[in-house]
Specification:
Layout: E1 2-6, E2 13-14, E3 19-23, E4 33-39, E5 46-47, E6 51-60, E7 70-78, E8 82-87, E9 94-96, E10 100-105
Parallel strand pairs: 1-7
Antiparallel strand pairs: 2-3, 3-10, 4-6, 4-9, 5-8, 6-7, 8-10
Length: 125
């Protein structure tokens, strides 16, 4: 069973004075991972506050109905004006909550240096 929902995610961790990461958001208390269904943003693009960034699907571990196989499809918005430096998460793949899925920067000129940024140190648990 699929339920459609809507939620927002914030860019929650600055990893340098130029870059911020978007971790896989935790959109329910029981959520431990989610699948990226579709990105609505692209590398090098400018995103505005409250712009839709991606759609994810997460299994609800607390639901007893349907044998615990309830899935929620949720949209995630970006809450700040920024530039997409790098999309780390790939469509169709599963990511743990807190794992970096995108890298952002505040200035367009910083996009070219994004490949040098080590996002592995930015996992939020």
């Amino acid at each position: 069973m699929f339920n459609l929902g809507f939620s927002r995610a914030i860019i929650s961790r600055r990893i340098s004075y130029k870059y911020r990461i978007l971790p896989m958001p935790k959109l329910s208390p029981s959520m431990t991972q989610a699948t990226i269904n579709k990105w609505f943003i692209t590398t090098s693009s400018e995103v505005k506050s409250y712009q839709l960034a991606l759609e994810i699907t997460a299994k609800d571990l607390t639901e007893e109905t349907n044998g615990g196989n309830n899935f929620h499809v949720m949209d995630v918005e970006i809450l700040e004006d920024m530039f997409v430096a790098k999309l780390i998460g790939e469509e169709g793949k599963v990511y743990k909550v807190g794992e970096p899925i995108a890298l952002f920067c505040e200035e367009r000129g910083d996009i070219e240096n994004a490949a040098k940024v080590d996002v592995r140190v930015a996992t939020i648990t």
